[in-house]
Amino acid sequence: MKRLAISLTFFLVLALVIGYMVSGPSFMDWSVAGGLFAVAVAGEGFRYWLRRTRAKKRSSV
User: Fold this and answer.
1) DSSP H stretches of helix in the chain
2) Secondary structure class of 27 (helix, strand, coil)
3) Can you give the pLDDT at residue 60?
4) What pLDDT score was predicted for residue 46?
5) Residue 33, Cβ density class (10 Å: 0-12 exposed, 13-18 middle, ≥19 buried)
6) 2-23 and 30-60 are packed helices; what angle lies between their axes, rounded to 10 degrees?
7) What pLDDT sits at residue 61?
8) pTM
């Protein structure tokens, strides 16, 4: 759980920085930042699902 929090915090900060760099100093591009963070959350969810299904296969054998 700690790894998930660290990973999502890192990607949140990275998405905010990229959103700020794309838009310039006068306006924050929330759609770019939100989209990048959504991709990170989906990736972490997929990684969790993949690890869980592998553990189920291993325990059933």
Assistant:
1) 2-23, 30-60
2) coil
3) 64
4) 94
5) buried
6) 160
7) 59
8) 0.76
Q: Which two tokens stand for residue 13?
A: 């900060």
Q: What is the pLDDT of residues 1-54, one digit of tens each?
A: 788 899 999 999 999 999 989 987 778 889 999 999 999 999 999 998 998 887
Tracing tokens 């700020």 back to the chain, one arrives at 20
Q: Which two structure tokens, joined as six digits, stand for 47?
A: 């990684």
In this structure, the chain runs to a length of 61
- Taking the C-alpha atoms of residue 40 and residue 47, their distance in angstroms, rounded to an integer, is 11
Angle, CA of 44, 38 and 2, to the nearest 5°: 35
Q: From CA 56, how far away is CA 40, in angstroms rounded?
A: 25
